Write a sequence for this structure.
């Protein structure tokens, strides 16, 4: 596809001699959410890390709107592609506004003095994530769902067209999982963001992803719509579990139910 | 957002008080008003007639002022580099003394002294360079020994720091005992007492202090980004490797200069940044300048106590900082588990 926003091309990554990712190719369009699924250790985090430039691939490239970003310096790559990590303790003493401003690092100088456009960009990111009223609160004082939104806001402040998320819902309760994914979907559609998101929960994947990429043992075995990938046959084989796939009552999307 | 102005004002007041006490107190006490008049009288074209004993001017200008200046710069350097190491290692217990860097710098300085470089005309200028080298080697060694799978856990950092620091201290003792005549001098050094006096050490170290403290003060933003871990810092657009190397070099330079003439003084680099992290918050763009000013004030006050507690003799200031610092260290250790200050 010529107009793909994110184009992962033939990407291979090794940990020592072990092959962690083998020849992964994947294209994501503006406004599209691709969910990355697969059993533990299949290479989901590795793919996110390699695409974000913190792991050097053995082979292959990552293209952003046609430009190879694998060899760009960090500050130029961070202007094209933003990563939302899992909310953890790090940097919890900073206020929400300070944290989101640090998302502007790629545009700031060594001393980090923000200009008018940086302030505007932070204010926008706070508004888009409904965090404006929390701006002066310390991140550690917020709930898990709010903390995860702070990290989304920090990534939005990077003003990129591509957003990568690594298990953003894993520490959240049901209500906040849905809230966060709705937010990601809205942002993706409204701002034409290309989103690649590693997710554990297959039913959330089914509800929120446009396409699903299934990784097994470092290989991309299936890529397609939720209806195409979330089938009993494919999922049972990938996860070594017995399950049935039924339909979500409201949307008709696939619903994965484990057998016990 | 909390405004830093008030905090700076408070530190400024404290520093001024500490400077006045440091210059005024001693075997001969000089009142603040007279200090101001003596200083004003040095101004070219000043018309202030001396109404103080002649010895006062000599004591003030030749003994007290250079001593006070060196102590203030040393305190600023230890606290500033302490704040930088804590930010860099993301560890509240990283202190130039605890992670062994100060001991490594001490070894470098004593090695330079014991090989006789200090008696050459350029010797005074060579000591800080030797201390710098010692500090860099130590920090590289400790960092690599303490790293586990890309992380720098508190326990291994302190263990590696203690081990490498103990080795450096033992080497220092060995070098000192080999050359008898410098034992007294060097023992005082090891306990954190300045072995040299007068303006010489101040002038020899001033350029390093100015460059080191200046560059540290400007490095707050990269340290802020690094609080999220190296991987996130990269993804946020920081040139992580360059920032780390730069800050390690500057912090080690600053530690080394502090150690070169004032000896190994512990805990200032631990206590001061920690207090400002509680008072002000985690933003290194202010935390470092505040630590510099606060460190100067803290070491000046410790030095005043060291001079008057068993007057007319004086204690090495390192004893005072350790006496106050050790309980404080334990307090941080217990507190670190509960509080999010990072």
């Amino acid at each position: 596809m010529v107009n793909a926003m994110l184009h992962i091309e033939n990407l291979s990554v090794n940990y020592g001699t072990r092959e962690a990712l083998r020849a992964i190719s994947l294209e994501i369009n503006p406004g599209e959410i691709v969910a990355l699924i697969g059993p533990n250790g299949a290479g989901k985090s590795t793919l996110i890390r390699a695409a974000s430039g913190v792991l050097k691939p053995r082979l292959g490239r990552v293209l952003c709107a046609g430009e190879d970003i694998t060899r760009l310096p960090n500050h130029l790559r961070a202007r094209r592609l933003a990563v939302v990590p899992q909310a953890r303790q790090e940097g919890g003493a900073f206020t929400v506004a300070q944290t989101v401003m640090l998302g502007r690092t790629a545009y700031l100088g060594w001393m980090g003095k923000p200009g008018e456009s940086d302030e505007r960009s932070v204010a926008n990111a706070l508004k888009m994530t409904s965090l404006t009223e929390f701006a002066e609160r310390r991140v550690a004082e917020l709930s898990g769902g709010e903390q995860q939104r702070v990290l989304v806001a920090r990534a939005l402040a990077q003003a990129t067209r591509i957003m990568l998320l690594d298990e953003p819902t894993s520490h959240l309760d049901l209500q906040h999982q849905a809230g966060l994914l709705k937010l990601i979907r809205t942002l993706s559609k409204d701002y034409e963001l290309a989103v690649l998101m590693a997710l554990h929960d297959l039913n959330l994947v089914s509800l929120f992803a446009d396409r699903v990429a299934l990784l097994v043992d470092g290989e991309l075995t299936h890529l397609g719509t939720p209806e195409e990938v979330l089938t009993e046959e494919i999922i049972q084989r990938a996860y070594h579990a017995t399950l049935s796939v039924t339909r979500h009552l409201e949307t008709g999307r696939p619903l994965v139910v484990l057998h016990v | 957002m909390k405004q830093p102005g008030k905090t700076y004002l408070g530190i400024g007041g404290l520093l001024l008080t500490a400077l006045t006490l440091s210059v005024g107190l001693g075997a001969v006490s000089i009142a603040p008003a007279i200090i101001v008049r003596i200083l004003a009288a040095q101004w070219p074209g000043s018309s202030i007639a001396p109404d103080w004993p002649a010895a006062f001017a000599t004591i003030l200008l030749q003994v007290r002022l250079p001593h006070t200046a060196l102590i203030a710069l040393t305190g600023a350097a230890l606290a500033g580099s302490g704040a930088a190491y804590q930010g860099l290692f993301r560890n509240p217990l990283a202190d130039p003394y605890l992670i062994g860097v100060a001991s490594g710098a001490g070894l470098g300085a004593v090695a330079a002294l014991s090989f006789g470089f200090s008696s050459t005309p350029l010797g005074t200028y060579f000591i800080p360079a030797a201390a710098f080298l010692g500090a860099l080697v130590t920090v590289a060694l400790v960092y690599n020994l303490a790293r586990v799978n890309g992380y720098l856990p508190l326990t291994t950092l302190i263990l590696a720091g203690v081990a490498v620091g103990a080795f450096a201290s033992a080497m220092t003792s060995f070098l000192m005992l080999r050359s008898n005549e410098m034992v007294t001098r060097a023992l005082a050094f090891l306990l954190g007492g300045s072995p040299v006096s007068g303006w010489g050490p101040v002038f020899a170290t001033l350029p390093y202090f100015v460059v080191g403290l200046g560059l540290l003060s400007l490095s707050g933003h990269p340290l802020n980004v690094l609080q999220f871990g190296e991987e996130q810092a990269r993804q946020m657009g920081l040139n992580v490797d360059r920032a780390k190397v730069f800050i390690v070099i500057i912090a080690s330079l600053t530690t080394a200069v502090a150690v070169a003439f004032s000896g190994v003084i512990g805990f200032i680099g631990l206590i001061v940044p920690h207090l400002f992290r509680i008072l002000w918050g985690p933003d290194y763009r202010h935390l470092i300048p505040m630590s510099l000013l606060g460190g100067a004030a803290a070491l000046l006050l410790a030095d005043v106590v060291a001079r008057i507690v068993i007057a007319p003799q004086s204690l090495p200031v390192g004893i005072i900082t350790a006496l106050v610092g050790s309980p404080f260290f334990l307090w941080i250790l217990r507190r670190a588990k509960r509080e999010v200050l990072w």
